[in-house]
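Input record (Table S2, row 270):
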Amino acid sequence: MTNATNNIQPDLLKDQVAIVTGAARGIGKAIAADFSACGANVMATDVLDDELTKTANELGDAVTAKRLDVTQEDDWKKVVTETVEQHGRIDILVNNAGVLLFDTVESMPLEQFRMMFDINVTGCFMGMQAVIPVMKKAKYGAIVNFSSTAAILPNNATGVYAASKYALRGLTRSAALELGPHGIRVNSIHPGGVNTPMTNPENLPDDEVNQRYLFVPQQRGCDPAEIAASVRFLASSQGSYCNGTELVVDGGMTAGLYFPNLPGHPDFNG
Ligand SMILES: NC(=O)c1ccc[n+]([C@@H]2O[C@H](COP(=O)([O-])OP(=O)(O)OC[C@H]3O[C@@H](n4cnc5c(N)ncnc54)[C@H](O)[C@@H]3O)[C@@H](O)[C@H]2O)c1
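Output record (nicotinamide-adenine-dinucleotide complex):
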């Protein structure tokens, strides 16, 4: 990707403790790297055991690998208990783990619908339920839920994914209303096209990936570090007055539509 920037601030999250789900790779890994570089202790969690261990080793001592299947309530209890035992607090939860399966609404098998909702929605719900008592006790916390531009401007072949990400908007806004008085902020982030194994499983080079995003005003895909920087904003004191905020980070993808025959279109030449 080009123009990626994350402007690390070494003390921004000093002494804070964060749980990040789906942190073995992709955006979750970028968040673990960003948060730890900003001074946080990060519980990096995932179901991809080997990849997670590799990621934690790569990112250094501030990042601890923990197995957590977000669909399993017992896993949540275990990770929350162990985090409090080890660090005495949980300041940040990033519900990043998610899955995307492509199919039309007509053809999507019911078990795939259920699987996507189980991970994308129920997993996030259980994560919030697991940390809320700890955060309430501390009268402090920041939760960032991963929605998508699919929940702002849906496209074909992602109807069920979009539905799951729309569900997170409701969950996030209601939780923001309920938890704001307890010092806990709950926000959602809505990335556009980010270059990760989810969208680029073939690991194509940046130039080829960017070709897919020429309809985006910024004319390229997003680097995971750019999403991590926005999550850091929502999760840190920089976003201290953001609650129930839906932060769209999409290079302008959902800003509107281009008309090819009118000035201002990237290919318009008069
Ligand atoms: N990549 C994009 O363009 C994009 C755009 C909008 C939103 N998002 C969202 O961002 C988040 C991260 O996506 P990514 O692109 O890094 O994807 P990714 O596939 O690279 O990473 C997702 C991670 O979630 C983990 N995961 C899956 N099921 C899990 C489970 N049951 N328990 C725990 N972990 C599980 C995977 O093992 C993987 O490590 C997702 O919620 C995704 O929907 C991504």
